Amino acid sequence: MKLTATFLITAFLAAASIEAKPMKVFILAGQSNMEGHAEIETFDYIGDDPATAPLLKQMRGADGKPRVCEHAYISYLTGGDTNGEGFGKLTTGYGARDNPSEDGGKIGPEFTFGIAMDAALEEPVLLIKTAWGGKSLFHDFRPPSAGAYPRTKKDIQQDRYHEAASGQYYRLMIEHVKKVLADPKRVCPEYDPQQGFEVAGFVWLQGFNDMVDTNFYPKQPKGAAGNRFALYSEYMSALIRDVRKDLGVPKLPFVIGVMGVGGKDPGSEDNLAFREAMAAPASLAEFKGNVLAVRTAPFWDEKLGAIQDKKDKVRQMAFELKNKGKRSANADGKMTEAQQKAYLKDYEAKLISADEAAMQKRGASNAGYHYLGCAKTFALMGEAFAEASLRMRAAQK
Fold first, then answer.
1. pTM, whole model, 2 decimals?
2. What is the CA angle 367-372-378, rounded to 5?
C-alpha cells in the first residue's frame, strides 16, 4: 500500500511537471527603431487598409482606446545620458520616451508583439525591452567574444569610441535582464515562483548606424568582391552566441529584424548590401531552426514613402533657395525671405496634392530612418517578430 501511494505521488508530480506553465520571457533589444517612433495618433491609418483593419481592432479595447494587455507585462530600459526603467502592463507608450519612466505616446514593435504573445500563450508574458537610439553593433552593442574595439586613426583623432566604452550597451542589456529576472514579480504580479519562468525568445532590431558608417566599414572600390558589411555578420553571430551564453539558454530562439527602411527600392546599394549582411547569420548551420531573419522592407509603407520623397525635394529646394543654388530660382540671390517662402509654398502645392498631404499627416509621424513613424509599419513588424518566435518555439518541441 505504501508503495502504491508513493507511486501515485510520483505520478502526480510528474503530471504536474508536464502541465507546468512557466512565465514566458521575451527580450527585445536594439536602437531607435526598437525604441519605436510611431505616434499613437497614426493608429487610424491602420484601419484605412482592409488588410490591416483587423490588426487595429486587436490594438484597441472595446472602448476604442489603446489596448491594455491582461496577461502581458513589460520592463523597458532606455534613456539618454541617464537610463531609467518604465514597467507595467503592456499598452501603448512603451516606444521612444523623453523620460524613461513616463508614457512617450509612441509604440515600437513591442506592442503588437506582446499582443500576439498574450493571445497565443496561456501563461503570463513578460517583455524585457532595452533600446537606445543611435547605437552601433560594432562598438556600442559590441558582443564580448568580438574582443576589444579596434580604434581607427579617425577615432583617435576625434577622441571617440574608446575601448573602455566598447560593448557598454550590451552589458547594460544583460545586466537589466538579469535584474528583472531576479525579482520577476516586481514587474509581473501574476508571476508564480512555483511555476518559474522561461527565457523564450530574443528579438533584435538595429542597424542604421552601422549601415551609414564609412569609418569602420570603409567604402570598397567598384567591382570589389564581397560585402563591405561582412564584419556586421560576424558580430551579429557573436551577439547571438554571447546572449545565449550569458543567459544560459543555448538554443534561445533569436529573431533578426532585418532593416527595411526605404522598402522594396531603398535607392542605395549599401542599404541592400547591409540587409544581406544582417540576414546572413540565419543561414549558418549552427543556427538552423533557432535563428530567423525577418525582412521588414515589406512593411515599409510605399505610399507614405513616395510622399516623403516629395517632402525631401521641398526641403532640398528650401536649402537651394537659401544658399543661392546655381540651378534654383534664387541663383542671383535677389529673392527676399518672404519671396522664398512664397515660392516654396507654391512649389510644394504643385508637388504634393491635398490628398497626399492629408495621408501623410494621418499615417506618418517621423523621419524615413524611423520607418516614417508609421504605426502600421511597426504593428506589422511586431506581429511578424512574434510569429517567427512562435514558429521557432514550435519547431523546438
1. 0.92
2. 135
Cα atoms in the Cβ-side hemisphere of radius 13 Å centred on 163: 8
Q: How far apart are CA 380 and CA 158, in angstroms?
A: 40
Is the CB of residue 275 less than 8 Å from the CB of residue 295?
yes
By CB neighbour count within 10 A (0-12 exposed, 13-18 middle, 19+ buried), where does 384 fall? buried
Contact residues for 75 (Cβ-Cβ < 8 A; gap 6+): 85, 86, 87, 126, 127, 128, 129, 176, 180, 187
Strand 125-131 and strand 72-79: pairing? parallel
Residue 67 backbone zone (phi > 0: left; psi -120 to 50: alpha; other: beta): beta
What is the band of 267 on the pLDDT scale with cuts at 50, 70, 90?
Answer: confident
Cell 501563461, located at residue: 123
> Band of the pLDDT at 19, cuts 50, 70, 90?
low
The CA distance from 131 to 188, in Å, is: 20
Helix axes 230-247, 168-182, angle to 10 degrees: 30
Provide the sign of the torsion angle of the four alpha carbons 301, 358, 91, 31, taken in this order: positive
CA distance 24 to 295: 25
The DSSP element (H or E) to which 341 belongs, if any, is helix 337-351
pLDDT (tens digit per residue) in 51-73: 999 999 999 999 999 999 999 99
Q: Which residue from 2, 30, 27, 49 is spatially nearest to 299, judged by alpha carbons?
A: 49
DSSP string, 224-261: --S-TTHHHHHHHHHHHHHHHHHHT-TT--EEEEE--T
Eight-class DSSP state of 164: G
SS3 (DSSP) at 66: strand
216 half-sphere exposure, CB direction, 13 A CA radius: 22
